[in-house]
Amino acid sequence: GNPSGVYSGNGILDAMASNEVTGQVVYKFSPDDGVSPGKVGMLAADLSMIIEFPIDPTLMNTTVGGTCPACETHHEALRFETAMYAQTALDGKNWVIFAGAARMESDGTSYPALFKISADSSDFTTGKGTGQEMYLDGSSEALKLPSACEGVTDAKQGRHTSFTALTKHGSYGYAGTSGRDANCDGCEHRSACVVMFSLDYNSLDSPTKVIVFEGGDGGLDEKDVWAAAVEPITEMGANGGFIYFAVGDRSNSGFGRIVKVMIGGTDTTSTCTSGCFKRVGTFEESASFGGIVHVADLNGIVSLSRSFTNTTYTKFSTASVTSISPQFVSSNTSGTLVTIRGTGFYSPSNDESTYNVSCRFGHTSTLDSDFQEEAWSGAIFVSSTEIRCTVPSALDSMTSTKTNNRQTYTELEVSFDGFPVDGVPTSGSLNPYWGKSMWTRHDAVVFYYDEPIIASFDVGHGDYGNKVLFTGENETNAPVTLRLFGGPFIDSDGSDGGPARLKCRYNGDATTDVAATFVAVNQLHCPLCEVSNASGVDRCGAHGTSGAAQYIPLPWLAGGQPKADVDVSITMNGVEYHSSGSKVLHLYGSPHGLSVIHPKCTMDGFSGVVTDSTLGVLNGGRDCRHNFLSYPGNAEADGTMKLDPVEVSLADIDGTVIKNDMGVGGTRGFKITAAVNATGSEGSSRNILTLAPGGVERTTVDGTTTFELSLSFVPIQGVYEIFFTGEDCTDGSTCTALSSTQSFKFTVQPGKAIGLDLEPGKAVGPYLTGPQFPPGTQVLNASESVEIDYLIVYTVDAGGNKLLGLDGGGHSISAEL
C-alpha cells in the first residue's frame, strides 16, 4: 500500500525531499510556538521516524554571530520554500538541498539561502543538524545578487528576495528567486533571477553564475519563480538541456509565463551557442502556474493551473525556434532553403506523410487562411536542434488581407503532424490534413528584401571604371578592392556581431566567394583576391615572394587568360546570389604588345594598324582611311618632315590598352622604340628614310607615351610605315621584348612648291651624257645656230615631288644663258 505517517509535533513542514536511492525522506520542520528553532529529520521509506535534530547553521553563527548572536537559534533562522534531492558525482553521496531565506540580522533582515544536508542515514545522524550553507547576504561581490533581481539598488542587496524554486541537472543546481514587495519602494520593478551553483558546493563557496529574466521595469512581468522542470538533451552533454521556469507576478493571479533557459555550461552571453546558461524564450498564459513537469513521452511539458473551482492541466510543446538562417530572403524567391535552429525537434511517424515535420509561412491571426497552402512545405529533419524548410515568395506568403506592409516579412510555424505525400493526402484534399495539424508559434519571422541592382563599378580610380589587371592588382601592384554601387544593400557583413553573410562571387564560380563589406545602402566593397603580406607588402596571393612569377592570374580564370566580361554577383543572405547583369568586370592581361592611336584617326577603343579596311566610324561619322593619314611633303627649317604626335600604349594579348607598366625590376616604365619600316613601306625613299633621332625612343608613364615624330628628310611621295617595338628594361641588365609590335601607315603627297624641275620638249643633234652634265644637255658648235625648241618646267616640293595640278600657279619663271 501507500506509505503514510503522522508527525506528532505542531508546526509547519517547510519542505522535504526523498533520497532517490534509499527512499528515505529528509524534511525541515518549523514549530508553531514562535520560539523553538527549526528541526531537520529523516523518515524511513515507509515514512516512519528515524531521527530528528535541531537545525544547526554553523556558518551562520560564524558569519553573523558577532552582530546577531541569536540568529542561529532563532525560530525563523532558516525559512525554506522548497527542497530537492541531489547526488554528487565525485563521491556518490546523497543529499537534500533546501532553498529559501536565512535571518542574518537582529532586526529580522533575511537573505536568499541554500542548505545542503546529507540524505544518507549514517552521515545524517553524525551531522546532527549541520550542513553545507550558502548565504547571498552581500558580504562579498560573489555573494551579492544583481540589483535587477530586486528592482532597486540597496546597501543590503538581497534582503527583499528569497529562493522559491529549485531544480538540478548534471553537476549543477538552479535556484529561482521571488521578491517581497512589502516595505520596498521600487521592488515592483524586479526581475526574477536564477542562481546556478555546483551541487558539491561547501560552506563559504559562492554561486557559479546568475541570470536575470525580463521583469517589471518595461519587461514581461517575469518577476517571481514558482516552479521548474528540466528537459535533458543528450546531444548537449551531461549538463546540457533546458529548464522551464513557471514565473509570474505574485500580485497578479490571472497571468503566468513559462521561461525557457538553456543550460550546459557557464557562458551567459546572448551569442552563446553551446555550454550556455541563458534565457532563450518565454510563453505567456492567462493564468498563473502552480506546477510544471517535463514529460519525455509527450515531447513536451505539462503545467498545472488552479482556481477556486477547478484545476487545469495543459500540455506545451518543448519545441522552440531560436534562429532562422538566413533570416531574410528575396521577395521574388522561388523557394529559398533556410536552416531553422531550436530545441525539442523530433521526427514522429505520421500516416500519409512524405515528411514527418512541416513548415508554413504567413501571418498569425484567427484564420488558417492567413497561412496559404502555397506557403506550406515539408521540412527536412536534421536533429533535435535543426530542421530545414523552404521559404516561399512574398506573394505566396501574403495574408488574406493583402496588407502591403505584411509583404516585408512572413511568420514561421512548425508542425510535427507531417506533410502529405507529394503535397496531397489520399483523401485528395489538403483541407482536412491542414486542419488537423497542430502548429507551434514562436514569433519567428523571415524578412523579405527587394532584389538589389548593381548600377556601376569603381576599381579605385574614382572614374567608375571596370578594368583591372587579371592578377587582382592595380598598375602599382596593390590589391584591388572593387566598389559596387547600386542597392538597396543589406548590412549583413557581420560587423555588428551577427553572422557574416554578405559575399561577392566572380564569373559565377563558387570558389571565388569572398566576404564583402557593407559601406552604405548603396555601396559595397569586394576584394578581388586573397591578400598576403608574405613578401613584406600587401600583394595578391604569392606575388612578390621569392621565385614567384611576376604575373599570377586569378586561379579561376580559364587558362589563366584575360576575360572582358566577368559577371559579379552578390549575396546578402549567403544563399541567394544576384548578378550584375550587363555590368561586367574587365580583367585585362599583362603587357603583351602595343596599341597605336593617331590623332587623325581616333575613337574610344580604336587602336591598331590603319589600312584601307579600317572603316570604323570616327569623329562624327568620318571613316578612317589613308587620306586622313596623308601628309604634304613640306620640310621644316632643318630639312626634316614633321608628323603628328602619336600615342603609343601597352596592350594585353587581346589588344586592350592597359596602364600596367611595372617591370621585372620593380620599377615602372617600358621602353618604346619607333623606326621607319622599309619592308612595310612602298615609297621610293623607303631604304634611306629614317626618323629624326630626337623622337626615336620614349619611356611609358602609366602605360602610355607620346612620340613627336619627324622624318629625317622629305621623302618621295608614296606609302610609308612607322614601326613601334616595346621592351622591359627595368632590371638594369637585359631588355625583354614584348611579344607583338605595332605600326601605322601614312602617305606622303606633294607639298608646297619650293623648286623647279626641267625636261626638254624637243631637241636636234647629238646628246652629251656623263656625270659632269645635267640630263638632257645638248652639244652645240659655237659657230652653229641650233634651234632647241621648247622646255617643260615643273614646280616641285622639298622632296622633289612634282606638284603638277596641285600647284595653283602664279609663279614667274625666267630663263637666261
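That was protein one. Protein two is written in the same sequence-then-structure order:
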Amino acid sequence: LPLHHRRITMMSKVALMAVIAVGGASAFVPTTGFLPKARLATSATSSLGLRPAGRTGSASLKMQVAAGQDTAALTRVATEARGLAMDSIAAAKSGHLGLPLGCAEIGAVLFSDFLQYNPKDPQWINRDRFVLSGGHGSMFLYSWLHIAGYELPMEEVKNFRQYHSMTPGHPEFPNSEHNTPGIEATTGPLGQGVVNAAGIAAAQKMEQAMFNTKDHEIFDSVTVALCGDGCLQEGISHEGACFAAHEGLDNLIIVYDSNDVTLDKMAEYTQSEDTAARYEAYGWEVVTIDGHDLAAIKKTMDGFRTAKNGKPKLLVAKTIIGKGIDEVAGTNAAHGEAGVAYVADAKEKLGLKEPWEVSSDTREFFKGVTTSKTETYNKWQDTFKAWKGANKEHAAKLDSFVKGEVPSAEEMFKGIPEFDQDKDIATREAGSVVINPVADLVPQFLSGSADLHGSNKNYIKTGGNFGRGFDKTYTGKNFYFGIREHAMGAIMNGIAFHGMFRPSGATFLVFVCYMRATIRVAALAEIPTTYILTHDSIGVGEDGPTHQPVETVSSLRVFPNLDVMRPADPEETVGAYVHSAQRKDGPTALILTRQNVRTLKEIPVKTRREGTLKGGYVAKKESGDLKLIILAAGSELQWAMDAAKEIGDGVRVVSMPCMSIFDKQDQKYRDEVLPPACRNRMAMEAGVGSPWYKYVGLDGKVVSVEKFGFSAPGDLVMKEFGMTAENCIKEAKAMM
C-alpha cells in the first residue's frame, strides 16, 4: 500500500462503492461522494503493533474475529442500538439519524468492552470519560447508556427531545434542569467536545500525578471523544489538538467518524485536506480502520490504551453514515431525519420486529458485561481502600476535592491580608496578590493564560506549571494555553466537567469574544469556571480601539447564569475572587483594570469585601434627604465617590460590581440599596450603558461610552469620553 495519498480516479471510486453492511443491514450503493484522502498511519503501526487499515471498501476491511470477542452478540447489539435511534427519532419527528446508525459498531465495542465504567456508580472517580462531541447524534449515547444499564429507563429513551425528559436534543451535563447519568459534557456546538475531552484528559493526568503512588495506582482512566467532520473543521479543534499533543496527553483518544458527509453537501465539497496527516503533524498517533469492523475497533482501541507514548490518539473510522437505511445511507440526506420515512422497511430488513426492541439475548449479554465491569470496579475498591490506609493525608485531600469543598467566605477573607489603604494600584495587580492565598485556601483552584500571564497577572507563585518538558509537571497549577483563547475556554470547561478541579483562565477582556461559545456552554452547564479578563476599558489607552473594550462587559452581562464582576478597588477584588472560588453553579468573569485606581479607604474594608459578595451595596450614604443616587462599577466608582463628596448633602453612591448577583438578593435588600422612592438616578461606566437602565429607569441618566475609542494615553481617552470626577459632578448637578 502506498504511504501517501493518491487522488482516486472516478473509475476507482466506482469500484470502491460496493460495501458490505455488517450486522444484518443490507448492502447499499452510495449515490454520491468522494472518500476522504485517508493516509495510512505507519507511525501508529510501528509503535502500537497495529495493522495499517486500507481504505473503506477495499478487500482488507473484512471483519476480523478477535480472541474473546462475541462477534454475533455485538453485531446484534449494534443492530438493536440502530433500531432504538430509528424509533426515537421517528417518534419525535426530529433528530439526527446519521451518527447513531453509522457508529453503532463503535458503540458496541466501547460500551461492551473498552470503556471502564460502572452503570450503578456513574460518578466513579476512576471511570473512563466518553464525550459525544457530535452532540447532534445524541440518540447514539442515549441508546448505549440504556443498553449498558445506566439509570436511563426505556420510557425516557422513547421520550427523546420532549419537555423535561432525560433525553434532550443534545447531551446536557447534569445540572438543575437535567440529571442524565453517563453524560460527561454538554455538547452540540461542534468542535467544543473534542477540546472538552482534552481538558478532561488534562485533569486525569493531574489526578494521576497527584494521587497515584508507587504501591497503589488508583487512577488510570482515559478519555474518549467521538466526533465527525464538523468538529474537525471547526478551528477550535485545531487549537485543542495542538495543546493536547504538546502537553503529551496520551490518555486522550478521539474517534473520528469519517463518513465523507457534511450536512449541506458531501464532504469533498468543502474539504480536501488530509486529516490524518494533519494530526500526525501535530504529534498524534493516528490509525485508520473500517469503522464497522468490530475486531479492528477493539484491537486499535486496546492498543491506544496501553500506548503510553506521550501522544494523543486519533482513530480514523471509515463509516457509512445512516447505515441500515438503504435509501439515504452514505449520503448527506442521512445526517438528519430524512431517513425517518424509511424506518419501518429498514427495521424489517434488519430483523427488528418490535418498536424500541432490545432482545432478551442482548439484555443477557450486557448482564455479563456488567458483571465483568463490576469485578474490575470491586478490585479497584480494594486498591483504593489500601491506598487510603497508606496515604491518609492524600486521602483527605482527595475526598475534599471530590466533594468540591471550599472554605467559607469569612474564612477566606481572614486568609487574605488587607491591602495598603494609601496605595493606588490596578485591580489586575490586586488580583496578582489575591490569587495566591486563594490558591492556598482552595488547593483545587487552577490558573492559566492565553500567553498573557505577565499582563493578566494571574500566576499562582507556588503552583508550578502544568504539562510535560521544560519546568512543567502534571501537578502544575498554571496552564500555558498558548495564543488559543477558544481552546482555553473549552479546556477549562473540560477540567470543570471532570469535577475535581476549579479552572480559571485569563486573557485581555477584548479577546474574550474568541471564547463566547465556550462561556455560553459553561453558563448553560452550570460549571464553576473563572475568567480573569484584564485591560477592561478605554483606559487601556495607547493600544487603541482594537484593544479597548467598549461593548464587551455589557455583552457578557446578557449571558444567563454568568456572574460578571467588575471590582472598583483592591478590596472589592478580594470579594470578587472569593465569590469566584466559592461558586458551584456557574461561571464567573472577573473584569480587571490595567490602569491604577484609587483605593477607596473611605469605605470600610469589610463593607467593600462583603458588599461585593452581594453584587451591590451602599458605598456612600447620603447626609440629609436623599436627592440623587449615583451608581457605578469598576474604575468609575472612584469618580462617583469624588463627585458625591464635592456635591455634598443628598447624594448616595451605590457600588455595583455584579448586577446578576445583586438581582438575586431579596427585595428588601435591593430596596434598601436603591430606595424605590428615589427615581433620580445616574449611572456611570466606561462602556456601553444599556444594562444600567434597569436601575436608573426612564427618568434616569447613564454616563457611558457608546462608540469605539482611539489611540492615546489612557487618562486622556478617559477624559475625552467624560470618565472623570469633573464630568460626573457636572452630570449629577444637572439632575438635582
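The longest strand covers residues 252-258. Keep this in mind for the problem set.
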